[in-house]
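Quick one: structure tokens for this chain, please?
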Amino acid sequence: MVELPLRFPELETLQNALPPNVLNQRENSVTSVNKLEGHLDFLARIDVLLDYSSSLCGILYHDDSSEILNQELIICLVDIAFFYREVSLDVMQGAYGSERTDGAWSTGGSYLRKGLGLLQFALNWILSSAAIADEQSMCSLVEDMIAELKLLQQIGIVVLSLSKLRTKMYKDQRDAVLDFQEQDLKDLAANSVLYSKLVIGCLDTALKCNRGTIINNSLFAYLNSLSFLLLSLDEYNKDETGVAIGMIERSVYYISKIVNKSQLSDPLLSRNRKRDRLKNALQKKPFHPGTGSSTVPWFRKDKDQNLLPLLQETLDDFLLPLIFLLRYRYRQTNDKVNFKSVEDEESNLRKLFPQGKAPDIQFENWSFDQRTCKLAPKPESSSGGRYY
């Protein structure tokens, strides 16, 4: 697994290849990549790297025979895409479960589109240049990042869907304790199959990707748990309580792979069985637009098997309490009303899964403008369908 962001090589080989102003741009770029704990936010780092990339494109446009300059450019492009990924995740995490976030989801999506487009530009450059060191490994790295950002586009839609579900449960009551009635479950089930298709689509995409800091066992456990959870709502709505119980138990099984045992041994409703309640987990939080953290980002730590923080927040804030609430309600209804046998065979439950759904991928086309010597997205250049 390649550690991102990529580091620039030693300067000695470039002293005579770059003019002083471009050497200064390189120095700033090295600092932006190496000192992640500094005062620069992600967008500022992107601007620094884009300036250096534009200068390199200008030099290589006249003569692309330098392997070291081509290497510098590819490192820049990969790192810019990496920071676009980080700022997008930062924005989406700030938007989840918050008020007044109309533009936040589209902003987070726009950063992913820019990152994807820039990676496509990098891939085209690698394939068309005659002077790329270790072309195969560089192509593999860029292709892996493209696949990862495409998956993150899908994950963004899933989190947006969860945010809508969360709002339904909360019903605009800022500090109220929510008493769960049958109609509330029907409301939740209204779009649960559609949302489950999006989650299953994420699973299908993730299975085609190479493992990394984001695509790991925790992600697969989360997506499997969420698939069973959402489909259980539909089964319960159809009075198939035995199937619903089987699905919610599989959801608990998969979620147990990524949460502490203490979180599973103390069910939400164990101390209050008279009424179904979802308590403090649904309190709204203020939205602070994310342009990047000035603290040590999560990707700097040993997080290879940890869940993406954006998804971890949905788990702690909403999904885990909901799982136990539904688990209790399903059992109560089946034991007192329906008396149906519980389907606990996972293979049988998976036969009820719908086909996954993946939205059209969208990216922005980047180009180098010789007149302005700038690398930038083309105006109105988005390719593919909008997704949020």
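Residues 179 and 275 are 7 Å apart (CA to CA).
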